[in-house]
Amino acid sequence: MLGLNVAMVSTAATPSPSKVSLGVRLGYAVGSFCTANFSTIPGLLLLFYMTNVLAVPAAFAGVVLFLPKAWDLIANTLVGRWSDRTVSRWGPRRPWLLAGALVLPVSFALMFAGPPLTGVPAALYVGVTFLAAATGYALYEVPYKAMPAEMTTDYHERTSLLQWRMVLIAVGIAMSGILAPMIAGETADGYRTMGIAFGAILLVAMLGSFFGTARAPFTGQQKSEGTLREQLAAARTSKQFLWLLGLSSAQTLGAGVMLAGAPYFAAYSLDDTSATTTLFAALVGPMLVTMPLWVWLARKLDKRGAMILSGTLFTAGALLILATPALGELYAHLCVMIVGVGYAGLQLLQFSMLADVIAYDGAVSGERRGGIFTGLWTAVENAVAALGATAYGWVLGVGGFVSSDPEHPVTQSDSAHVAVMIGVTVVPALITFAGVLMTLKYNLTADRLAAVGGADGTGPAPTASATAVSGGADGGKDGGQPEAGEVLRAEE
């Protein structure tokens, strides 16, 4: 049997565009509200909601929050594979953005709108709806993360492109971290209202990115070959991907532990539940103003050097919070601002580096496998983020923290107060510093990427199966993908 694949490309196509238009940047970036809200709100409030509103034991609540993530290992990988192999007038990724928009907003609202249950039944309800929400998130987020690597071939343009995404992520985190706790309060009715409000925000953002990327250029490979097992093996043998996944997981876990501990730190260390809002303002404020700085540092220090600096700042800020009992609430907020500066760099650089890894693999293999990489990435990212809440729940359990509901408050022991503090400072600091050490082993630089034509399009010419296609001046109605009939596959 002889297989023949022929890609017919319009003469108006631009094989190696290096710049992405402002409209497409903003259209892509608006989807970050989905990433920010779904990553932040469950991590910030779901554990607290279960232990302090639904009276679920802390250790059991942590396990329930983590178990749906086991499904992510399957769902994210499958979605990545499907999006790699999708051929449509909307391109390979955008149909999946729409599918996610139909699932996630509704299941997110249901997650916080459960029947009047407490204890184990309440935990099971939250677990099932969280599983549905995680599935919707996989349908959207996996192809969404793969898109930057396919919009431009320029190493530094990918960082600049993602700068817009990080700015809107900061806005989304601010909305999640400031408005969501204010709306939720400490009552079941408040949490229901919050779930509906943010479910609507998710819907608008996800549809916005679907329509906003309709004219996005496409510079990726035009086919995906091999079985799922073969492509997973390819991802596992990519040293750059594995090191990046490891250091990113450490960063995500450290941030997840700190995120889950924020409401407890505000309530029991600062004795001010409203401080959760101001602490989040201190965290995301630097993200809004330091992105241009991190883009500049990525050029001066290369992305690896900038990543090491950002991780070090995060670690130092977390450890400095330990002095809060002696120096007070204002001091705690200043330390969180240091954490925020480091967190801004971590968020920008890890996704820029992921786009580099995808571009490098495509240039070397001549195949479209970005969905496999982002599927594995998102599965691990979600599992690690959920593990952050689980780990903090375990720390509370070791410290003797006693769960309660609003009608029956309890006085926590001294050991519980110590656990609250250690869990939000020392634990995330040590984890994040481990990520700094792993960053030293990451070696995909601009020069190395340029050598295979993955940085500016000046490297070796792509094969017929890897021909890059762009939508031309306006990207076309299909997001830069060939129209039906433009790709001819014949086997004999």
Automatic annotation (TrEMBL):
Alphabetized, the UniProt keywords read:
Membrane, Transmembrane, Transmembrane helix
User: Lyase: present as a keyword of the record?
Assistant: no
- Give start-end positions of Low complexity composition bias: 458-471
- The highest taxon in the source lineage is Bacteria
Protein name (Swiss-Prot/TrEMBL): MFS transporter
InterPro entries linked: MFS_2, MFS_trans_sf
> Can the keyword Transmembrane be found in this entry's annotation?
yes
**Regions crossing the membrane:** 54-75, 96-114, 120-140, 161-184, 196-220, 241-266, 278-298, 305-324, 330-349, 370-395, 415-440
Outline the segment boundaries, as ranges, of region: Disordered: 458-492
